[in-house]
Design goal:
The chain is an alpha+beta fold and about 260 residues long. It has helices at about 1-25, 35-45, 175-190, 195-200, 220-225; strands at about 50-55, 55-60, 65-70, 75-85, 85-95, 100, 110-115, 125-130, 135-140, 145-150, 155-160, 165-170, 205-210, 230, 235-240, 240, 260. The chain is globular, with a radius of gyration of 23 Å.
Length: about 260
């Protein structure tokens, strides 16, 4: 009797391990066809009215960005994640304003700028920025134990040429290094509640500035007009603040920016 129980226990554990591998650990299967993508987008969000898949942009093995056009001529984005042994749509946006997709919230190297700019807005380039205000902090630990700390301001920029309406771009390596350095600084100062409350790495912000052809009036009406539908798939999509020249300490031109992509 004991031998049979052990045998059934071993069989159960093998089946459980196989189920866990199949459901959570197995490599992704082939990505769906354009027809299947359209059907799923419109099934999940009937308001999307997707009619054309523009492209499939593979960000990593388990995350894919799919820009699309609707039958109302909206330029949108859908976000796909390999989860529970299937490709699932995490969010569907009928507008294509730039956002940042944080695939792993704790790892800036997985962050991607994503966009699908409507051609009627006649945008030519976008300038992305990573900003952090300078700060000065005095810590008094009692008696004469006082520490003065200066936190320099950060302004990093990169430009994107809109040869296509849509795109995805990883954070430049320099940006990732800066963010990682601040994250490490926060870890080393975990005992300092003031530091963690007022000077976390999250205090850095992302922003962007659109550029237009000469003589074209600033307009983002088509790009920003629409809605976003989220499913139960976990996803972090952050808005980007639209900046103006007054928000920059040293205004950049596109030639001054450190990185560029086509």
């Amino acid at each position: 009797m004991m031998k049979k129980k052990r045998l059934w226990f071993v069989i159960a554990m093998v089946l459980l391990a196989g189920w866990i591998y199949w459901f959570y650990l197995a490599k992704p299967t082939a990505f769906p066809t354009n027809e299947a993508l359209l059907n799923e987008i419109n099934r999940v969000d009937s308001g999307a009215s997707a009619s054309e898949i523009q492209d499939t942009l593979v960000l990593d093995a388990k995350h894919v960005l799919v820009p699309f056009i609707s039958d109302r001529d909206d330029y949108g984005l859908s976000y796909w994640v390999w989860e529970k042994h299937k490709w699932r749509v995490a969010a569907i946006s009928s507008r294509g304003e730039p956002r940042i997709w944080k695939i792993d919230r704790g790892d800036p190297s997985t962050y991607h700028f994503v966009w699908n700019i409507h051609p009627e807005d006649e945008m030519t380039t976008m300038d992305f920025y990573l900003l952090r205000d300078r700060n000065y902090h005095i810590s008094n630990y009692g008696g004469e134990d006082q520490r003065d700390t200066y936190y320099p301001g950060i302004q990093l920029g990169t430009d994107v040429s809109l040869s296509k309406s849509y795109g995805a771009m990883k954070l430049p390596e320099e940006w990732v290094s800066v963010m990682d350095a601040f994250n490490q600084m926060g870890i080393s100062n975990q005992s300092n509640m003031f530091f963690n409350s007022f000077f976390p790495a999250q205090y850095m912000q992302f922003g962007w500035i659109p550029s237009y052809q000469e003589g074209v009036e600033l307009s983002l009406e088509r790009t920003f007009n629409g809605h976003v539908y989220y499913t139960d798939v976990d996803i972090t999509l952050d808005y980007l603040r639209i900046l103006n020249e007054g928000d920059l300490e040293v205004p950049f031109t596109t030639r001054d920016l450190s990185e560029s992509v086509d």
